Amino acid sequence: MPTPNIKLPNMDHYWVPFTANRQFKAMPRLFKAAKGNYFTTMDDRQILDGTAGLWCVPAGHGREEIAAAVGNQLRTLDYAPAFQTSHPLAFEAAERVAQYMPAGLDRIFFTNSGSESVETALKIALAYHRVCGNPLRNKLIGRERGYHGVNFGGIAVGGIAGNRKAFGNALAGVDHIRHPLDIVNNAFTKGVPEDGGIALANEFEQRIMTLHDPATIASLIVEPMQGSAGVIVPPKNYLKRLREICTKHGILLIFDEVITGFGRLGTRFGADYFDVIPDIITCAKGLTNGVVPMGAVAVKREIYDAFMENSAANAIELPHGYTYSAIPIACAAAIATLDIFANEKLEDRGASLSGRLESAAHSLKGLPMVKDIRNIGLVAGIEFEAIAGKPGAMSFATYLKCYEMGVHVRYTGDIIAVSPPLTIEPHEIDRIFSTIADAIKFVVAAGDAGLDHTRYLKNEQDWAMHQSHQAHINHPILEHLE
Length: 482
Ligand SMILES: Cc1ncc(COP(=O)(O)O)c(C=O)c1O
What we know:
Layout: H1 21-26, E1 31-35, E2 38-41, E3 46-49, H2 52-55, H3 64-76, H4 88-100, E4 107-111, H5 114-131, E5 139-143, H6 152-157, H7 161-164, E6 174-177, H8 183-186, H9 197-211, E7 217-222, H10 238-249, E8 252-256, H11 270-274, E9 280-283, E10 295-299, H12 301-310, H13 328-344, H14 346-362, E11 370-376, E12 379-384, H15 393-404, E13 407-408, E14 410-412, E15 415-418, H16 426-446, H17 460-470
Parallel strand pairs: 3-13, 5-6, 5-7, 7-8, 8-9
Antiparallel strand pairs: 1-2, 2-3, 4-10, 9-10, 11-12, 12-15, 14-15
Helix pairs in contact: 3-13, 4-13, 9-10, 14-16, 15-16
The protein binds pyridoxal-5'-phosphate.
Pyridoxal-5'-phosphate (PLP) binds near residues 115, 223, 228 and 258.
């Protein structure tokens, strides 16, 4: 929503990911700089970052320590082949990540994104059972409304229909357990819901395992807190019970911690928050504070050892890897980020601010259209009543109004998600939620006009651009979740 006379780039060539391109190009929101908890827009407005980028900037923007580490590394060793050679920083980064992981998950495979971490984890699970002599354990179980990135394994175990249906059948041998959101019984719960966890987890054993011989299931993958599908906080004891069931049946439990890792819940990982140790953890995003693409998969030492002990001598134990696995600048960024976490105790900061965020978020209860509010650590989700025939319209309109008022939030389906950097100040938390409240009141008061995104096209130039893209717009509201 730039003001007049801002020179926009030619927008024809860039295919913007997970974005309604025609709509966005008619009404772009472009940042040209970022520092601390704020973005600067093309027209020099400061926008408070209520989402830590895409959940990936826990230490705040523009960290000089990371910039210096990356710059120095780039000038020293820009690249070393990732296969058959390596470089010392890869080993140092792996050691640091291992030390940051829950005890026992100390063998680290590096990737370049959350999606690649998920694919890697699923492949390790399948290959692990093979290398242990159990090739029939080849089914992958995910969860409804799970988001595990965009590659084929991830969309197969993922449970967001909009992300799958355009691509046909992703993988065979996949099934899903139920998601734990129970608005009927748990609406407006502060933090973790008390009841229903054990019964819900038991469904895994009762329902899925009666359909599939448990001895054919390789792994179960879940996000400790489902972020992209709209902040779904699992009930008490649910993850613990899933752990018990997996252990009983020899199924590897994978926690996808791409969002919940690196302090988001006020602990290092969701595993720490819920006191449940999975067999494999996937992470990315906060690992480098979002500045260089990097992901990691941490596996229990026994899993790594099984590959080493059971593979033929001199064989490649895991035929898998990426050209950019552990590239020097990513390792430098990860180490600098872990230093910041250690020096600033960012997880503790997140934990100490979570009460403030909880009160601020739940102060929105009672506003029109607000159907549920959920929170945990430094995350909150505000779910709206769906408007018939207009899925996501309310959240999109609220998001746009917040942006106009200088606060960046996320919308996903009928939900607004808030996940600020762990460096956020208490008064900034208050501002995020008071802005959302004002935006909701504005949108509701304006009725249909409030839901019309074209109201934000401010000048003739924007209108002309809008009209030129308008011809192609057939669904103005994003229906995909990410
Ligand atoms: C739980 C989870 N897994 C995987 C991913 C995919 O990560 P990326 O976008 O880095 O591929 C995400 C992204 O939001 C995520 O939330």
